[in-house]
Amino acid sequence: MAALYEEFTLCGLVQTQNASDSPIQGIERDGDSDHAVVTDSTRSVTLYKVSDQKPLGSWTVKQGQLLTCPAVFNFQTKEYVVVSDNKVIRVWKDEDLNLDKAFKATVTADVWRVHSAPGGEPVVLFQRGAVRFLDSLLSAPQQPIEDVLSEEEVIRWSTNIVAEEQHFVLFTTEQKGECCLYVQRLNPNTLQKYRLEREDSGASPLSFSASLRDKHLNLLYLYPNGCVYQSVVAARGYVGLEGVQALPRSLRLRLAVGEGELGAASAVALDEAHVAVVGVPHPSARTGKDFLCIWNTNFQTLQAGKEMAGRIHGQVWCYLGKLFVPHGKALSVIPYDCQKSSLASALGKLRHTGIAVSKSSVAVPSWNTLLHGDQPQGPTKIVETRKSKLSRKSQSAQALTVDQVLELIKTGPVDEVQREVEALVSRGDAQDLQLSVGQLACHLVARSQAETAFYTPVALAQLVQTQFLCHSVCPGLLLLSLEHKDYFLCQLCLQLFPDIPEVVTCACLKTFISVPDGDVEMVSLEPDSVSFMEGLVAAGARGGQQNGFSPPLFEEDSCDANHQPKPPQDKKNHTLQLEACPVGLHKAVLLNEVLQTPYSDNFLLPHLKDLDTQQVILFLQYLQFVYLKYSQDVYTQTPGLRSPTMTQIIDWVCLLLDAHFTVLVMAPDAKGLLSNLQSFVKSQVKLFSELGKIESSLQELHKMKLSKDISQYSIEVIELF
């Protein structure tokens, strides 16, 4: 459980000439837990007493000079340190009034940052990657500074960590879109370089945060697509290894970013289970608004949120239970509290006093209303009728709180329960909804399981759409939707729940495979997923050459030596048969959702064995169909449409074959299917083999210099050796 408390303004901000630049370089702590050292983006350093919001001292360099890194506090000598004009290190005490008369030393290379932490000596990180202790540097400021980084490599972020007599300096670099992490250990002095995995978009992380937990260095970083990753480096027993090491990562959060990508956002780890994120839209708020949110990474739940007015610069600092966020024209301080993670608190199942709701109407959710805000004509009239009834009723009755709605769910009629749940969700504050949505869903599911006639599909869909639900919050919801054949809600859960168990995933697969096509064709499903399948089937109807193989040539690659070639007409019929989708359009959409559901191979494989032979054959035929369409040159996937990847398709084929290979080999109906799958593999192996033969030639083409004397028409002979 986590909470954000009432914010207060520490100081005003002076806007820079460039609106995109932040007015603050950095915020550091000093020896007093109630103090904050604030360095602005130009010439001033100010010491504040946070609880009183009063400045205790301020120091400024001369006009024409510029502070180029944030000031820090030397915990050993009780002095402040700052760098001006990249090379001038200044040291002073809090009783000094004139910064220009304080001690200063000019070094031989540009400084990136000075880092200081309790229990350790301050260190200086230079822009070319070299690290020096402050005392040794000041004793010989003209000492030569080596270059650690390559010529085009630039530092993007740095920090230092002091714990258990160990001192680390961490910094990340970027070069031509490649990001690396350097871990500099002091005493003994060793340096290790790690390469971060690249995103498919090629984007670089927006922010980094580092901490030491359980004798491991934990690096947390946020990408523009809303993904928050964590990488772990061993601290104890660290040995400097030669060369660049790959840095594994794990996905901790996937934040909804709305349209486009994040421009200015930051994430900082608060403890082992909570992350503070600023500059990311709130899941339930309108677009165009920036929030400070605390997320529980263990349960993927939003714990607290607060709107930050004005421009967000993508900066957040965390010291001793307080978050410092510059936004608009103010630097705000927001106290926070993170309690030890428990399932009840993280999933919103603790006792809550309830929230009052205002008078407004809620439209019946559909994919159009949920995604685009527009409503179909039919349901609009129904909602207007309800609105008039609610308007008359609300004149004499107070809006229901969460506790009152929970009591209503136990005994109330379906229509009234659904109406009040919809109203509560639409009128509630985002932070309060995070606590109450889980309770509402669990109560609705519990009564639906107890009473067959009670089921509220619209209210359940709206609760899922808040994105405050996951499978561990309400384990019975997805199975309940399967029982009631509510495929719209099934699809919604498969898309938004990140923690669906493999046994439930297989239950969904078995249901979708077994349901008749006609039963799902009239069901309203998510438009983008339906559009994807319509485009895929349409592309298949046009035909085309496949990458690496062609269906009419399957017989040529057959491993049966006695097999006789079929006449051309048979090959044509075989091609047409492969291009026909073996399942209906809407059934295919639901199967695609299963393909995109996260899973673990070890846990999924035993449950796949529960499928019967005909279900496995049908699913493999569908996977073969999608695989063929993906391989066609004529098919181009539309960006933004929800669809499975080629890797997901191949992984599922492998899993099904592993689970049912013996049965499939013995089944006469599967002989042709297995033969086709074997042909796929052989053709791809042949393709990659041929590509490998010309790999060296292709590399030579890249090395060749193009002739500048090329007219509009020319013939150039290229010799490959």
From TrEMBL:
Q: Name one GO molecular function term.
A: RNA binding
Localization:
Nucleus, Nucleolus
Q: Which UniProt keywords apply?
A: Activator, Nucleus, rRNA processing, Transcription, Transcription regulation
**UniProt main location, coarse:** nucleus
The cross-references to InterPro entries, in alphabetical order and at most eight, read:
NOL11, Nol11_C, NOL11_N, WD40_repeat_dom_sf
Which parts of the sequence belong to the Nucleolar protein 11 N-terminal domain? 1-336
Task: State whether keyword Transcription applies.
Answer: yes
* Record GO cellular component, one term: nucleolus
> Which segments constitute the Nucleolar protein 11 C-terminal domain?
428-721
For this chain's UniProt record, which GO biological process terms are given?
Answer: maturation of SSU-rRNA
This chain belongs to which protein, by name?
Nucleolar protein 11
> In which organism is this protein found?
Oncorhynchus kisutch
Upper classification of the organism: Eukaryota, Metazoa, Chordata, Craniata, Vertebrata
